[in-house]
Amino acid sequence: MxxxxxxxGLAMLAFVALLLxxxxxxxxxxxxxxALLLGLAxxxxxxxxxxxxxxxxxxxxKGGTFDEKLAEQRRGLAxxxxxxxxxxILSDGLARQGKTKEAANVLLSGLRDSPDxxxxxxxxxxxxxxxxxxxxxxxxxxxxxxxxxxxxxxxxPRYFYGLALARAGQLQxxxxxxxxxxxxxxxxxQVKAELEASIARIDAMLAAGVPTAP
Length: 214
Hints:
Elements: H1 2-20, H2 26-46, H3 68-77, H4 83-96, H5 100-113, H6 118-131, H7 138-150, H8 155-167, H9 171-184, H10 190-207
Helix pairs in contact: 1-2, 4-5, 4-6, 5-6, 6-7, 6-8, 7-8, 8-9, 9-10
InterPro entries: TPR-like_helical_dom_sf (IPR011990)
Protein name: Tetratricopeptide repeat protein
Transmembrane segments: 6-24
């Protein structure tokens, strides 16, 4: 209901402004009023005037969205020390504050110093996916592929690229990355169990004909 009140109020205000400020002639007043009514009709058709307002936080102000478990998995599979660690720690700190753009920019700064560091490229891919709320942007896809090209046998690029693909609905692509990784993972390891469980879920979804992203 609030939407209607605001829309009608703005239409009335616009018409009064046309009369007092624009000084439109009498012959065009009916046309102007009809145009405003047409705008209200369009709002009723395309908009949601009866829907309650839902304020949303800006991306930079979002808090509590940082995935600590994911960061710990990355540290376990990839870096703990070395030149990439300081940049990744700084990036994680910014991401915890909801500053996802700044988190990605920090890693870009690190890549200017170390352009062939697979961990930094991987971190950049994760940061860009987080910044875009789970969407694999072209930049994120490029970052993951660079990490894979630099470290083709490492578990981290395949694991996290596959995870991003799976979350984006690209199940076949995720499975293609995860299947050989699960086969080569140590027997009894947690990552092997997680991958095998995830692959089983993907297979069940594909067998059930669940739509997947291209």
